[in-house]
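Just scan this pair:

***
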Amino acid sequence: MEVQEKMEREVSLKELFWNILFGWRKLICVGVVFAILLCGMKYFMDLRSDRSEGTIDVEQLEKELSEDELQQVIQAKNLKARIEEYEEYLETSALMQLDPYKRQVLELQYYVETDYTFNYTQDTERDYTSDLMSLYYSYIMSGKMSQNVIDDAGLSLNQANISELWSVTQTGTSISIKITCPEEKKLEAIAKSIKEQLSAKETEYQGVGAHKLKLLGESENVIVDTALSERKNTISNNIVTLNTQLTNLKANMSDLQLSILESEQEQTEDEKEQEDSKPGISLKYVIAGFVIGVFLVCAWIACTMIFTAKLQNAEEIRTLFGVRLLGEIKAETGRKRLLSVIDDKLLTLKNRRRKALSAQQQIKVIAANVALSSRQQGAECVYLTGSEYENIDAGIRNLLKKELNAQKLQVKEGGNIYYDAHSLEQGTEIGNILFIEQKGQSIYDEIYNELNLAKEQNNFIMGVVVLV
C-alpha cells in the first residue's frame, strides 16, 4: 500500500473568519484593556508634561527693580489690562456688532388704565397707580423676562448682551419698550414673547388694583443711532490713547522691566491655553486603543492557525491525508461559558445550511458506515485507535463501541500504534483500523506517522472520525 506523502496545508479564510468571531470574548477583553492602557498613558504623559512646564520666576526678577521701576511695570500692566477689556468688549458685545447707521428697532408702547377714582365727598382708597407702574417696570427690567425672551425666541444671546439691546422708558402711566436684536428675523418672536408675558402679568397684578394694560402701538423702524456711534468711537479712541500711553511708557523701560512685562503676558496666555487644554480622557485614544487590542487578537488567532501543529478542522483529514472522513462528533461540554448563548447563535449561523444532529445520532451514522465497510471487507472486528486516543472522552468511546456492537461488530481498542508496539501488533492482527482524532488536540505529524505505519503493515484503514 502506498505511503501517504506530506502535503502543504492551506489556511481557510472562511475558517479564520469564524475563529475570529468565536474569539469575541478575547476581542472585547483585550480591546478594553488596550483602550484603558493607551488612554491612561496619554493622560499621565499630558499630566506630567503639564506639571513639568516651567515658568520664569517673575517675583524674583521684580526684587531686582527699584520702587519707581516697579511702579512703571505695574502701570504698564494696568494699561494692558484696560486695553484688553476694551478690545474684548468690542469683539464680544452684541451691541457693538450693530451698524449704528442702520439700526432696526422694535418699539412697543403700553398704557396702564386704572379704575382708581378720587372723590372728595367720600373716603377714598390709596392711589395704587404708581405701585402698578413700578411693578411693570421692574418686571420688564428683570432678568426673568429677558431670559424668557431668550428661551421663547431661541436667541443666541445671554442676559448681559440682551440688557444692552433694549431700553424701557416710563412716563406717567405709559411705558415704552425699544428692542434691537442682531438676529433681525427674530424681532417678531421677541415681540410675541413680551406681549404674552405682560398679558399674564396683567392678570396677576389685578390683586394690586383693578386696571387694564393697553398696547397703544407696535412698530419696527430703521434709525441712525448717534449715541451708539459715539460710544463705539469713544471706546476706539480710548484704546488708541491707552496704546499710545503704553508705548511711551515702554520706551523708557529697561530690558529687565520689558522682560518682566512680557513674561507675565506669556504666563497669562499659557494659563488660558492650559485651562482650555487640561489633561483629560480622550475618546480618540480610547477608540485607538480598542482597535489596536482587537487587531492584536486577530493577528494572534491568524498566527495560531498558520503555525499550529494541531488539527484545525475535520476536512483536513481528506485534503491533507487523503483518508476517508467517516464523520464528526460534537463533544458536549458540561460547563457553560459566560454568555454562551452568543456562541450558540454564532454556531447556528455558521452551520445554517447543515442539519444539526446530536452526538448520539452522529455516532449511530458513523457506526452504520463502519458496519457497511466491514461487511464489504468481510471483517467482523474493528480496531479503534488514534494519536490521542487515551485522551478522548470515555463517554463517547463507550457510546461508539456500544453502537458498533449493536451492528454485530467486535470492537477492540488501543493506544497510538506509532508508539505502542502492543497496539500495533493487535491492530495489524485484526487488519481493520478505525482512527479517532480530536480537533485542536491531535498533532499533524502524529497522524501522518500512524496512518503511514498502518499502510506499511498492509492494514485496511476504514476511515477517521474527528471529535470537534
User: Anything to note?
Assistant: Residues 69 and 336 are 81 Å apart (CA to CA). The two ends are 29 Å apart (CA to CA). The longest strand covers residues 211-223.
